[in-house]
Design brief:
Blueprint: E1 7-11, E2 16-21, H1 32-38, E3 42-48, H2 69-80, E4 85-90, H3 92-103, E5 108-114, H4 125-136, H5 145-152, H6 159-166, E6 169-172, E7 175-178, H7 182-193, E8 210-215, H8 226-232, E9 236-241, H9 248-251, H10 253-264
Parallel strand pairs: 2-3, 2-4, 4-5, 5-8, 8-9
Antiparallel strand pairs: 1-3, 6-7
Length: 265
């Protein structure tokens, strides 16, 4: 069976279109609870980004460019062509969503970015550490899923983050495997923390409404990045969720859902 270039799942049959793009190590189904809550009033599509979930893996040089923000944004735009959408992106998905919106503004009616800014960050060491920890696990030694949790606990002491990462662990018959392309993600991590300013130089600012939602304990949305946000997305406002870090939609799902509902209205 051929893996689809992009795997999508849809909830709801009426109302405006809402599309979710997950972050690094995520998958579309991370948004299932929020999607089901929105489904009575919206047509919700959950996308698995390349190298994640059930979407195809990318190839690095010399066969391809790996996970390229601009190419992935264009691929998703082509997949979603049709009625205008409300686009929601978290972390890496937030960067893809911003690039997509700037390159295909007629497709995006409004944009919500969760804990990510349109800037190049100086470090991705936190995520690099997660990849190394996941690759370093001896999957052949695992019996139950609880064994995986214990094996990852020293490297990833945060219970919420560890639980999020372990959603990528799949059991097939008597063995375990990681679903995402971990080696590919490790290869392309420098591109994830960058921002394709040169490729977007010819794109005008996006004039639609934009909402930035940040976690209070996260540093991915700060006043330092406000000039870049205002320049590219002038009609923006910011909301900060208390008692939440980078994975704010997992840590405070009810609050995030209410903020999103208000924005969609």
């Amino acid at each position: 069976m051929t893996t689809p270039a992009l795997h999508t799942t849809t909830y709801g049959e009426q109302g405006s279109r809402v599309v979710f793009l997950h972050g690094l190590f995520g998958q579309g189904r991370n948004w299932t609870g929020i999607a089901k809550s929105l489904a009575p009033d919206h047509r919700v599509t959950l996308v698995d980004l390349p190298d994640h979930g059930r979407s195809a893996w990318t190839q690095g040089p010399p066969e391809g460019k790996g996970f390229d923000l601009v190419e992935v944004a264009d691929l998703i735009a082509a997949e979603l062509a049709g009625d205008p959408i409300a686009l929601v992106g978290h972390s890496l998905g937030g960067k893809v969503a911003m690039v997509l919106t700037l390159r295909h503004p007629d497709l995006v009616q409004r944009l919500c970015v969760a804990d990510m800014s349109p800037v190049a960050y100086t470090s991705g060491s936190e995520f690099s550490g997660y990849i190394e920890a996941m690759l370093g696990m001896d999957l052949s030694a695992l019996g139950q899923r609880a064994d995986a949790d214990a094996a990852l606990s020293d490297a990833v002491p945060n219970t919420t983050v560890r639980s999020f990462l372990l959603q990528n662990l799949r059991r097939e018959a008597d063995s375990w495997r990681w679903q995402p392309n971990l080696l590919g993600l490790q290869r392309d991590l420098p591109g994830f923390v960058s921002w394709p300013a040169d490729e977007l130089a010819g794109c005008p600012p996006y004039e639609g409404p934009v909402l930035w939602v940040g976690g209070a304990t996260s540093t991915y949305i700060t006043d330092e990045y406000a000039p870049a946000m205002d320049q590219l997305f002038p009609r923006n406002r910011r909301v900060t969720i208390k008692n939440a870090g980078h994975w704010l939609h997992s840590e405070q799902p009810e609050v995030f859902l209410e903020v999103l509902r208000r924005f969609l209205r």
